[in-house]
Design brief:
This protein is of the alpha/beta class and about 375 residues long. Helix content is about 25%, strand content about 25%. The chain has eleven helices and 18 strands. Strand 17, helix 11 and strand 18 form a beta-alpha-beta unit. Helix 4 packs parallel to helix 5. The radius of gyration is 20 Å and the shape is globular. Bound molecules: nicotinamide-adenine-dinucleotide (NAD) and zinc ion (2 copies). The site of one zinc ion (ZN) has 9 residues, from loops.
Length: about 375
């Protein structure tokens, strides 16, 4: 079929919206009609050319939500008409990691996905006979996409899809960091560094876990205000004195749980150092630049602090995302303030500009 998509032609240049050919879903693949898609840093990171593993031409986009149009002959997990959220983190249910409750790092399709292909090593995207590669296994800056069924969450059809799209990546990452990776205990003190979509999700996750104090740290007053809306009980404008301030606020000990959601390795270090001696757990979600390292004085670890990394909040996507969406529908998670700008596919580059200007939390593309 023919459909419109935003193609990364050359690194560092605007995406070009154009008509492409999309082949039929085969085997365990699904054709999804996109209704909404968030514009995320990872898309911009790849478009800019900074990501060493990036490739072009490809169709970017991964925070998608839409409706199943058609399924391959071996699909059992979804059916036409189902509402779905697209994931870069699949859940095959069968690999060594899917069977283990300790991780969500499904191994089933990692290699072809990272190289821009569907699980069989080919692509469904082309123009005039030239093959175009997929991105993160999703390629949702497009009216339609073909994806493996193991990378789609079937969600409550009552959920507005523009809000559901935020659960495809950033929001679930933050919620999961607090609820799944750290498993924040009731009554505890938490600190969240960075209150973009991931950090705001972490604030909401700490609240849902029953944390008593949730301290949000950011460089922006506007974002700290949004953090209060998600449940932060205290806020602090970030600076070099942040760790000292947190220690002062916590009787000299530090917080039970700290979360880093900036991608800045200096902030990661602050998050480690402001975790409580004895049992403080620092969860790192930010993606650092290529070659950067995290500097930790070993004494901080010997005295009982722990550091955990978290990809997609540690969530097993198909199993754990739909219940989060139900909690949103039940009024427990406030998604509306996170949907800052509504744009069309043709305005996708404006979505990047808004993100670079830190204007709003998420721009969401609506497909007409
Ligand atoms: N682990 C995962 O699976 C996963 C998924 C999505 C995003 N990420 C990563 O998470 C990070 C956050 O993503 P986002 O979409 O929320 O980004 P964002 O840019 O919207 O938010 C980052 C926030 O950090 C704040 N900040 C910057 N420097 C700071 C400092 N010194 N102290 C305190 N706050 C500071 C910024 O003001 C901003 O509000 C990024 O690194 C992103 O790549 C990881
Ligand atoms: Zn994302
Ligand atoms: Zn798996």
């Amino acid at each position: 079929m023919r459909m419109r998509a935003a193609v990364l032609e050359k690194f560092g240049e605007p995406l070009v919206v154009q008509e492409l050919e999309l082949d039929e879903p085969a085997g365990r693949e699904v054709l999804v009609r996109l209704v909404a898609c968030g514009v995320c840093h990872t898309d911009l990171y790849t478009a800019s050319g900074v990501d060493p593993s990036g490739y072009a031409p490809c169709v970017l986009g991964h925070e998608g939500a839409g409706v199943v149009e058609k399924v391959g002959e071996d699909v059992t997990l979804v059916a036409p008409g189902d509402h779905v959220v697209t994931h870069f983190a699949p859940q095959c249910g069968e690999c060594v990691h899917c069977k283990d409750p300790r991780t969500n790092l499904c191994m089933a399709i990692r290699q072809p996905q990272n190289a821009g292909f569907l699980p069989d090593g080919t692509t469904r995207l082309s123009r005039d006979g030239e093959r175009i590669r997929h991105f993160m296994g999703t390629s949702t800056f497009a009216e339609y996409t073909v994806m493996p069924e193991i990378a789609l969450s079937k969600v409550n059809p009552e959920a507005p899809l523009e809000g559901a799209a935020l659960f495809a990546c950033g929001l679930s990452t933050g919620l999961g960091a607090a609820m799944q990776t750290a498993k924040v205990a009731e009554g505890s003190t938490c600190v969240v560094f960075g209150t973009g979509l991931v950090g705001l999700g972490a604030v909401a996750g700490c609240r849902l876990q029953g944390a008593e104090r949730i301290i949000a740290i950011d460089l922006s007053d506007d974002r700290l205000e949004l953090a209060r809306g998600q449940g932060a009980t205290e806020t602090w404008l970030a600076g070099d004195d942040t760790v000292d301030w947190i220690l002062e606020q916590t009787g000299g000990f530090g917080a039970d749980y700290t979360f880093e959601a900036t991608g800045n390795v200096k902030v990661m270090r602050q998050a480690v150092e402001s975790a409580r001696m004895g049992w403080g757990l620092c969860t790192v979600t930010g993606v650092a630049g290529k070659g950067e390292t995290l500097d930790v004085i070993p004494r901080f670890l010997i005295t009982g602090r722990r550091v955990a990394g978290s990809s997609f909040g540690g969530l097993k996507s198909r199993e754990q995302v739909p219940p989060l969406i139900d909690r949103w529908l039940a009024g427990e998670i406030d998604v509306a303030p996170l949907l800052s700008h509504h744009i069309t596919l043709d305005e996708v580059n404006k979505g990047f500009e808004l993100m670079e200007a830190q204007d709003g939390i998420r721009s969401v593309i609506h497909f007409g």
